[in-house]
Amino acid sequence: MHSIFSILMVCMLFQSCSGNDNTDIINTNADSVYGIAASGSPIDGTVIVRGKQGNKVDCQINANGWFNANVSTLVAPFLIMADGTANDFSVQYYSYAPGKGKVNVNQLSHAALSIALEEDAATYYRDHPDADIPDIAEIKNHILMLNDLLSVSYSTLDLQDNFNFMYTDFNTDGTGFDLLLDRIDYFYSWADTYLMLYEKETLIPIYQQDFATDDIIMPPDPLFVTDILVTNHCAPYYQSMFVHTMIQMMYLWKDDLPRVDTNDFFEHATSLDFLNWLIVPKDRWSCIVPKKAFDDYAMNSAYVGLGFYIARDMANQLRICFVYPDSPAANAGLHRGDIIYEINGQPADDIHSQYDFIFGENVVGEPVDMTIKNELNETRTIKMTNSELKLVSNLYSTIIDRNSLSIGYLVFNNFVQSSIQELNTIFAYFKDNQVDDLILDLRYNSGGIIDIAQYLASLIAGDAVANQIFCQVQYNENNRGLNETYGFLSLKNSLNLSRLIVITTQASCSASEMVINGLEPYIDVIVIGNRTCGKPVGMNNYPFCDSYLFPIVFEVVNAHGVGDYYDGITVDCQAMDDISRPFGDINEASLNEALYYIENNACSKRKRKRPDLDESNPFQLHGFQQEIGAL
């Protein structure tokens, strides 16, 4: 909750408007329409008052949400519109006054007016710009009905007796009635003539009416409304109801969902438990993520962790695969290839996935002790604590000169917003040095943002494929209108390659596979290493309470309509991930095989395509941690 600062301005049309502080409201005269325009925070914008025959005045809303319009030139009754922003969202709400005096503007006044008009107040205002405003006597009944619906909530929040959302003063400080406004939203379907008031965090309706049948779909229940809005706001069972609602609407495999009854919402301790029970067996990815964790990831390319990733080598030893610079792991002296003997007192032989919870809580300051052996055969115990880290896309890049060929080599690890700057720098270097081939090492890249995959693929293939289809995302049959096509971009530093060598493992996932699949219709893509993880689907985020729901909602196909690689993308040349060697070591098995292919246009004899070889076993990450691809 926050207040928004507004600058006092004169009315833009005919009359002046007071709004500096509450004193202006107290000192209103008989020619004023005044009140509070708010929607969980003060509306930062303008109030427009329209009288009979379409005459208008407007005025600014002040920082506390107060407005005071002189309507001496207008004839009652009045339609009032508040237009602006609240809580960083654009809002437009309406209200009604039979004459001069006090009236508030918010989503509840908008709903009461719409019910009386039997159409959305915004539609009426737009479609009848010059018409007389009906003197709706019954609006009083609808105001009282909605007020009664909130009566127990008013009492629970210790609001004054006879509080009325249309006419009573309140503070826009996130408490009391302002808290209710922050939790209530309004929806009107023009096609279905359907109105709904709902709790905005969980989308649970508190009032629904169908104007076509004049039925109140959900009979108002003040106790139920209070439970949702105040007493048990965002309780686990309400969160599970939200998860069910969104999954029913958006889930790619919605037709395969189990039947859900009311008891199922109460039988799971958390919404995540409910989600895991609800989704289909082949869905290994749908998850729920704390808002702060995802917001840091999306906006700042940041996460909380130690800054490394681990896997088992061919000898079943647990090793460090990579280390982010300036991370707790880097500061502790960890390097790729270090062998792990123990984590927080647990032997490495007993550690197989994130679900073993060996690293403790994923919060800043959480301590982690590890016993390791480094490349010098020194065994030591190190102490680290979780910190907020920046994701790094470029783990390693260089140009390898090999038999008169200049070969770019890039170990690319994340598709995040900050990747663009890194990619521009790397590809400018490759282009300036006129590389003949590119080895794109995606062996630990678990995916990320589609736009970044599109950007990387465009840098590789260049102008020859500009504006051609890179990929298509396809939603379930009820959401085909959301389908989207991503085209290749024309970029300054593109290499215009006709061939790409890619190194993959079972940890190469999602957007990594999208780059391979999206390029294959246009250039030769040679895959070295081991098959990928098999994720030809994607997620969108849906906010609720203090979390985001990430369900699988679309599948991804290339320009030829090819997708469905749930078993992973197969390789052209098998090669192991030799964790014991650093990135860029030409004797490392996967890089060595890639270089062999470039020189010989074929796999080495022992590496031709055949059933998967045993290889390093990636550490199993789950949910959002899999998207980050690091610990």
Assign a percent range to the helix content. 10-25%
Q: Tell me the domain tally.
A: 4
Annotation, overall tally of beta strands: 34
User: Roughly what fraction of the amino acids lie in strands?
Assistant: 25-35%
Can you tell me the CATH topology of the largest domain? Answer: 2-enoyl-CoA Hydratase, Chain A, domain 1
Radius of gyration from the alpha-carbon trace, in angstroms? 30 Å
Largest sheet: 7 strands, antiparallel
CATH superfamily of the largest domain: 2-enoyl-CoA Hydratase, Chain A, domain 1
On the 0 to 100 scale, the average pLDDT is: 87
In terms of structural class, how would the helical and strand content be classed? alpha+beta
Unreliable parts: 1-27, 608-614
Give the helix tally: 17
Q: What would CATH call the class of the largest domain?
A: Alpha Beta
C-alpha termini separation: 33 Å
Oligomeric state of shown chains:
single chain
Word description of this protein:
This protein is of the alpha+beta class and 631 residues long. It folds into four domains: 17-215, no CATH class; 236-283, no CATH class; 302-390, PDZ domain (Pdz3 Domain, Roll), CATH 2.30.42; 394-628, Alpha-Beta Complex (2-enoyl-CoA Hydratase, Chain A, domain 1). It has 17 helices and 34 strands. The longest helix is centred in the middle third of the chain and has 15 residues, at 236-250. The model is unreliable at 1-27 and 608-614 (pLDDT under 50).
